[in-house]
Design brief:
Length: 307
Amino acid sequence: MGFFSKIKEGLKKTRSSVVGQIDSMLKSFTKIDEELFEELEELLVMGDVGMNTAQHICDELRVRVKKGGITDPSLIHGLLAEITAEMLRGGQELTLNTKPSIILVIGVNGVGKTTTIGKMAANFKREGKKVVLAAADTFRAAAIDQLCIWAERANAEIIKQAEGSDPAAVVFDAISAAKARGADVIICDTAGRLHNKKHLMDELHKISKIIDRELPDADKEVLLVLDATTGQNAVNQAREFKNSAGITGIVLTKLDGTAKGGVVLAIKEDLGVPVKFIGVGEQIDDLQPFDPDEFSSALFAKDGEKE
């Protein structure tokens, strides 16, 4: 299955629910008026795009409709795809130019964090990069074992200690190993939940200090993994982590299992944090680097449209 087809298939539920309703609504109008914009805004909000983002999209649509002298409601569909692509562009590429570079992966338990790390490692291995995984989620019983399984699948090296070990010590060991073995990328798993939020943030801060001390000039990405099926709750999680953990990007998982794909727009618009990867299936190659133009094209693709 091609790249576009995979994303299109992954966005099937969102497209049939949200975009399907928008298309039906547009067909019920014979002219473009304020009532159309109000109904469109309502449908976008219901599609987990968020109030601010829905207003922004409709305001931009009004400008383009007026400027282009557009009167046919069916042309709104194409304008929506253009506007959403423009909104999502910027910052989606990973910055990993140093050797080694480091990725800190954070997120609450249950969002698919460990799976995401395994798939990310497999992506880098396919590109010919040498990858070291740091099993720094030492507080959850199955986390280390789970990461070991993914390391094997992705053919990546893993650095681990016993359950309950100091996560920062694991990261230190992984950095030392990566330097010694000439690795290109270090990917660190982290705890999704400790005794309370303060403990979790303190732990992340401690890990970051180790990274800054041991790899002061390395490129570093802090990626927050979010579950798309939680819709606006994902935006709230992103807001909390952005304020306390300095995230550089989002990995949005389980897009294929939800009609709430519009949350991608809310995250970028409300928080200014770019989406860097999207998960569109269960297979090891179903974590895709985020492409705003491909995403918008797939979201607003007509049935039967070819790649």
